[in-house]
Amino acid sequence: xxxxxxxxxxxxxxxxxxxxxxxxxxxxxxxxxxxxxxxxxxxxxxxxxxxxxxxxxxxxxxxxxxxxxxxxxxxxxxxxxxxxxxxxxxxxxxxxxxxxxxxxxxxxxxxxxxxxxxxxxxxxxxxxxxxxxxxxxxxxxxxxxxxxxxxxxxxxxxxxxxxxxxxxxxxxxxxxxxxxxxxxxxxxxxxxxxxxxxxxxxxxxxxxxxxxxxxxxxxxxxxxxxxxxxxxxxxxxxxxxxxxxxxxxxxxxxxxxxxxxxxx
Length: 264
Prior knowledge:
Layout: H1 2-26, H2 32-54, E1 60-61, H3 64-82, H4 92-108, E2 114-115, H5 121-155, H6 169-197, H7 207-230, H8 235-262
Antiparallel strand pairs: 1-2
Helix pairs in contact: 1-2, 1-4, 2-3, 3-4, 3-5, 5-6, 5-8, 6-7, 7-8
């Protein structure tokens, strides 16, 4: 049953992508209502799948593929809502593409990592903050890539940069730093709850998560300081945003990927 739900969700995500891409390439109107309906259908099925995969009868199955699928759900949900107010057409195919990969992997590849968050509410708070921090800063990384792409097109004075389906460069930059600011606040709370609630934070196998997450936090704080106090723009912004996201990816998924995927 889970495989059928995953395939149906993937088809709806693919339908949304197929509706968006021609408008981006040909600079024609995008049928936003059709995209939204496909996205909502995919998200409903994706959420149903996650509830089946994660809410195991013996606890919560937080294996790496389920967590990656959950993060994809959060990212696609946020961006799908954003399409109602902001032109995020450049970002949606990327987010939907990753969602397809993650949900199919979680549905078709077996595995388990059972936890009991109902017994440790402090850990539930920490994990929830970590998921939302990572998802928010992942969206920030996507915005940074879009900003770099738009900036390159404008510098080359290509007509594609005036595509009506793409947002203005300055709007993307403003949205980027709003997202980075929110993500950094969430990451700060994640680190605070991690140190306050998880007593074996630096135990074997967990120290790298704390260290890499803290380095990523420094990267984002420096990025915000550089932009608001020093006026940083352009490629420097993109590299900092991507570096922070890469560090968090290593922190959240590095050792789990080796243990659950490579060594199994």
